[in-house]
Amino acid sequence: MYSGTVIDCDIHHDWASPADLLPYFSAGWREYVTRSGGRDLIPYIPSEIHPNPGGVFRDDAFPPEGGAAGSSLALMQEQLLEPHRVERGLLTFGAGTYVAAIANPYYAAEVARAANDWSIDNWLGGADDRLYGTVLAANQLPEEAAKEIRRVGGHPRMAAALLATNGIGKPFGHPLFHPIYEAATEMGLPVAIHAAGESFASMRVSPVGSGVPSLYLEHHTLVPQGVMTHLVSMIVHGVFEKFPTLRVLLMEAGVAWIPAVLWRFDMDYKGLRRETPWLRRHPSEYFYEHVRITTQPLELAPRREQMVELLRLIDAGEILCFSSDYPHWDTDDVLHVSQSIPAEWHDRVFRENAIDLFGWSDSASGVPAGDRAGEAG
Amino acid sequence: MIEVGRLEDFAERSVTLVTVERVEIGVVRWDGDAVYALRNVCPHAHGPVCAGRLGPKIVAEGSDPLSVAVDDTCPVIACAWHGWEFDVRSGEALCAGSRYRVKTYPVRVDSGRVLVALNGRGPQTERE
Predict the structure, then answer these.
(1) What are A48's strand-pairing partners?
(2) What pLDDT, in 10s, does the model give residues A312-324?
């Protein structure tokens, strides 16, 4: 059992009510949101096509005073930050994570901008010094997303740029997305890619290969597929050759798929090199240098030793970063993860890999290592 | 060294299979009198590497996908079975460094005769 402090790389904070975001909209968009939706506000994020039959949140994570799960700092402190000894936590929004699922790209850019200002004002202004933010990026308009990363990415509490849904129907390696990576590297921020972003009615792509799933169980089992697509795309398109200091954190996609994808990727590259002559190394080499993975949801192997054996195959102690995914229904806690991985990896997985990724100083005070802008993330 | 033919028997930028002492060898004539010889066995899955396609190495200048070009100084053969590419001059795999290597043989062109040293010091076909 790990008894030290932890860095939690995926905490979903949310507004208690959509109305909380209204002060952060421009006057024009506020008018649009409040007037065009009839009696209700225009929804910020479209509906997911696969409802979880039990809801997507822990039943005990709803604040007693009302509001969305993840909207109460006090409850977050009580349920997560204190009992799990969180020294630093990365906030990744609630429904807002999937801002790139909004069909209207101009509205999406405004929602992202408003959400970032809301996050800074309400969560990153000293409410709890353990908390760090992500810059929500509406990637339907990559150049606008890049501007937003530059606008707020220099905030001392911003630790990463956040991508989830692909907003233009292309995997994240496509050159259209490169302005986002240029901005992130310029600001010294890693890019966090959150899973499950394509499962929205507004999307023109299937969230998985071979067709749109019908049930939530299908969807959730296959969530890693989308992340695999983005990862392979970024490496194939030479993103890490073009942006050699870029670091990427893959979130909420589990880890058991990694050896299968990397082994096949390297094998196929050997026979197809001439299609990608801009790559100078094997795909797996780019992966290990540039990519880190959050632990949640850590797959449950029939026997613990099987999981350990699998993780050793990919030297997982060097690439995993602990995440709880609080307050979602499939949250992982420190006990589960610490019992699932070798004890000699605990320090790396619970703290040090994240410290390296975000360029933080190795202290539990939560003080960032100075001005990150211009440094490798 | 063993004569495997005259230079004019081998077209420029082509690979020709010959058998020398029961060893199947691909004789690659590149530009002019640049001639190379490789064993026709791929170190990956033992496929007929010399039955694959021959061409200059495809490169990307500055690792830029918009600057794809060829390096005419580097003849490359792609194995017939899985497409693994090898530098004909050294036998080394292009994408796997020196880990995989096709066995090569010393070649000399003497008075128009193409001579191959079957037991020469060329590197072995190997998976290190």
Answers:
(1) A200
(2) 999 999 999 999 9
DSSP code string of A48-100: BSS--TT-SB-GGGS-TT-S-TT--HHHHIIIIITTTTEEEEEE--SGGGGGG
ipTM: 0.85
From chain B, pick out residues whose CB is under 8 angstroms from the CB of A238.
60, 63, 65
At a CB cut-off of 8 Å and minimum separation 6, what does A31 contact? none
Q: Which CATH number does B2-117 carry?
A: 2.102.10.10
User: Judging by DSSP bridges, how do beta strands A191-194 and A158-163 pair with one another?
Assistant: parallel
Name the B residues in 84-113 with CB < 8 Å from any A CB. 84-85, 93-96
Task: Give the closest residue to A60 by CA, choosing from A290, A249, A326, A288.
Answer: A326
DSSP A326: B
| pLDDT tens across the length of chain B (128 residues) | 999 999 999 999 999 999 999 999 999 999 999 999 999 999 999 999 999 999 999 999 999 999 999 999 999 999 999 999 999 999 999 986 668 999 999 999 999 999 999 975 444 444 43
Query: Does A314 reach chain B within 8 Å, measured CB to CB?
Result: no
- The domain limits of chain B are 2-117
Chain segment A105-125, per-residue pLDDT in tens: 999 999 999 999 999 999 999
Which of B59, B63, B127 would you mutate first to test chain A, the one with the most A CBs within 10 A? Answer: B63
Question: Which residues from chain B sit within 8 angstroms of residue A240, using beta carbons?
Answer: none
Cα R_g (chain B), whole angstroms: 14
Residues 34-63 of B with CB under 8 A from A: 44, 57-60, 63
* A200, A101 contact by CB (below 8 A): yes
Read off the amino acid at residue A121: D
Give me the half-sphere count of Cα atoms (radius 13 Å) on the Cβ side of residue A253: 23
First to last CA, chain A: 30
Would you say A170 and A178 are in contact if contact means Cβ atoms under 8 Å apart?
A: no
Q: How far is B57 from chain A (nearest CA, A)?
A: 8
- The C-alpha atoms of residue A56 and residue A289 are separated, in whole angstroms, by 33
Cβ-defined contact of B60 to A278 (cutoff 8 Å): yes
pLDDT at B91: 96
- What 8-state DSSP symbol labels residue A114? H
